[in-house]
Amino acid sequence: MKTLFQKKREALVQYDLGIDESKKENYEEAIKYYKKAIKIDPNFAFAYDNIGISYRKLGNYKEAINYYEKSLKIDPNGITPLQNIAVAYQYTKEYDKSIKTYKKLAEIDPQNPEVFYGIGHVYTSYLKEYEKGLDYLCKAYNIYVEQNSPYRSDAETLIQMIYSEMNKAGNKDKFLEILEKNNIKTN
Which superkingdom (predicted)? Predict the structure, then answer.
């Protein structure tokens, strides 16, 4: 009979083979290895995460969500599955679930700008709720600036798009008020 250590090591070997296939973008092959890993070790949360990521890369969002949920049963505060399931919900047009998941992630990782960018993106790009989206995007922008991240330009682009939409709707003052509230200066 194999020891627990031997089983975990065997699962890790399969997982690593899956990683190698993922790097080559052979996601169907990667999934086979990750599934072997979870068959050996049913509590291998990272393998569930990577199955989800692989299914997402293949465009099978429902199956991706299924595996992210399995990972979250093992670790309800797993940052990788929470962030990825929020994105998958956008693909399945389950925007409320996406926002709810991002908000849970914000409780766990409040300095993660991707959380606020994700919420802002959902509100602006899908729900067309520009004021709500702007506030979250400002939070993301400020964290990106603080972290000296190049992704701040992504937030800037969406903020500029919101400006255009709010200005057209006669809400320029509200736009400027939200920026001021978030300590963002305009030119």
Answer: Bacteria
For residue 121 the two structure tokens come to 């993106």
- Phi then psi dihedrals of residue 41, to 5 deg: -130, 90
Task: Provide DSSP, 114-132.
Answer: HHHHHHHHIIIIIS--HHH
Torsions phi, psi of 59, nearest 5? 85, 10
Q: List C-alpha distances in Å: 181 to 49, 53, 148, 186.
A: 37, 37, 21, 12
Residues constituting the chain = 187
Side chain identity at residue 110, one-letter code: P
Q: What domains appear along the chain, each with residue ranges and CATH number?
A: 1-94 (1.25.40.10), 111-187 (no CATH)
For CA atoms 20, 21, 27, 31, the dihedral sign is negative
Task: Tell me the two tokens of residue 87.
Answer: 């994105």
What gap in Å lies between CA 103 and CA 175, rounded to an integer? 23
Cβ-Cβ contacts under 8 Å for 170 (sequence gap 6 or more) = none
Q: For the segment 95-147, what is each residue's pLDDT rounded down to a tens digit?
A: 999 999 999 999 999 999 999 999 999 999 999 999 999 999 999 999 999 99
